[in-house]
Amino acid sequence: MGQLDGKVAIVTGGARGMGRAIAERLADEGATVAINYGRSAAQADEVVAGIQSRGGTAAAFAADIGKVSEIRALFAAVDERFGRLDILVNNAGVATRKPFVDITEEEFEASFAVNTRGTFFCMQEAARRIQDGGRIVSISTAAIRVGGPLGSLYAGSKIPIEAFSRALARELGDRRITVNVVSPGFVDTEMLAGNPDLRERGAKASPFGRLGTPQDIADVIAFLVSEQGGWITAQVIQAGGGAVS
């Protein structure tokens, strides 16, 4: 018996990297997982097949989180398929690393469409549909507090998530629904691939002397969405191995 038996979870951006690790961990804990993807259909199917091979239940759902109409269709499709929603993990994101003065209007719009607007409307749909006692967790970034060059757009588009979450936690508290943010530090995903300088900086930022792994973040989220995490709400959890203190 897993601690999430009988629960239904949506993980946005669940086909790759951190999202995949989160989806797999929740499935291993017994949740039925709706794996959202944008363009990674083959990878999403691979994650579903892996979960099913271990005796879990999962299905892939295509939706562009940058489009509100597709967000609403995603939640409706999950409700039709599984009949309920207990957990939302807002993981989908766009990361643009460029000098401030070189960021284009199109890049600005794309980042805020997914990271800010998309997260907001996923939270809104979850608030309308989620079962009492449910869990909403959104992924932010330690870059908000660490700062650094080239990360202005990514960090700036993530800051509102923290304000959204604190407010929604107050609105949903009478239903025992928790709303939290997980703020990873430097995690060994595609975002750091091919950037040895950033990888070195990330490893040095942690007292542990290493980058985080997707599994590290999945472990934190698995706790927050469990029954044991029910007394934690309206919080930003720094899950960066001490990179932010």
The helix content, as a percent range, equals 40-55%
- Average pLDDT, rounded to a whole number, is 96
CATH superfamily, please? NAD(P)-binding Rossmann-like Domain
**Total of DSSP H or I helical runs spanning 4+ residues:** 8
Order of adjacent strands in the largest pleated sheet: 3-2-1-4-5-6-7
List segments where confidence is low: pLDDT < 50 over at least 5 consecutive residues: none
Q: Which CATH architecture would you pick?
A: 3-Layer(aba) Sandwich
Note the main sheet: 7 strands, parallel
The succession of helices and strands, N to C, reads: EHEHEHEHEHHEHHE
Kindly estimate the percentage of residues that lie in beta strands according to DSSP: 5-15%
Write a structural description.
- The chain is an alpha/beta fold and 245 residues long.
- Helix 1 packs parallel to helix 2, helix 1 packs across helix 8 and helix 3 packs parallel to helix 4.
- The model has no long low-confidence stretch (mean pLDDT 96).
- It has a seven-stranded parallel β-sheet with strand order 3-2-1-4-5-6-7, with helices on both faces.
- It has eight helices and seven strands; from the N terminus they run E-H-E-H-E-H-E-H-E-H-H-E-H-H-E.
- The chain has one domain: Rossmann fold (3-Layer(aba) Sandwich), CATH 3.40.50.
